[in-house]
């Protein structure tokens, strides 16, 4: 049951964070193009976006763990103090698994936007467009 809840929660997180990272990569299109124009190779662009996903997963995992521990302690003291005061036990191994899973989900989520950023056309990115301008036979090459 816990594994099914974990898989479902991971799926929801992947959907939400992949949309956020895709939007972030598109908003940084020009910035990434500037980085590429000064000599960054596609691997460096891919690592920039991947590191953003890893950082998002790590910060989200740590903040989620802190909020969960804080909420659990408050709830424990609010309910258990009236009956029998028991010590609070924190499963550190499970917490480490959750943080590692958050980092893995963040890096998995950033994979596709990182690939897209690595394949972008630098000149189109510097122009502020998504795709390069194609010169068609109907358009004159010189003049108007």
Number of helices: 6
Structural class: mainly alpha
Q: Please give the number of β-strands.
A: 0
Shape descriptor reads elongated
How far do the termini sit from each other?
69 Å
Helix content: over 70%
Poorly predicted runs of 5 or more residues: none
What is the C-alpha radius of gyration, as a whole number of Å?
A: 23 Å
Task: Tell me about this structure.
It is built from 6 helices and no strands. With 144 residues, it is mostly helical. α1 (2-27) runs parallel beside α5 (111-118), α3 packs antiparallel against α4 (92-109) and α3 (42-83) runs antiparallel to α5 (111-118). The protein starts with a helix and ends in a 17-residue tail after the last helix.
How would you summarize the topology of this molecule?
Layout: H1 2-27, H2 29-37, H3 42-83, H4 92-109, H5 111-118, H6 122-127
Outline:
76% of the residues lie in helices and 0% in strands.
Key attributes of the depicted protein:
mainly alpha, 6 helices, elongated, 0% strand, 144 residues
């Amino acid at each position: 049951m816990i594994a099914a809840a974990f898989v479902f929660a991971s799926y929801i997180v992947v959907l939400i964070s992949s949309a956020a990272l895709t939007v972030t990569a598109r908003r940084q299109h020009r910035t990434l193009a500037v980085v590429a124009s000064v000599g960054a190779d596609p691997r460096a662009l891919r690592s920039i976006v991947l590191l953003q996903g890893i950082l998002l997963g790590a910060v989200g995992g740590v903040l989620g763990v802190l909020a969960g521990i804080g909420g659990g302690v408050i709830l424990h003291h609010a309910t258990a103090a009236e009956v029998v005061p028991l010590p609070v036990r924190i499963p550190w191994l499970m917490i480490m698994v959750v943080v590692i899973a958050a980092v893995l989900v963040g890096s998995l989520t950033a994979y596709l936007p990182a690939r897209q950023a690595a394949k972008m056309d630098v000149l189109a990115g510097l122009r502020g467009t998504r795709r390069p301008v194609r010169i068609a036979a109907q358009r004159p090459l010189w003049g108007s």
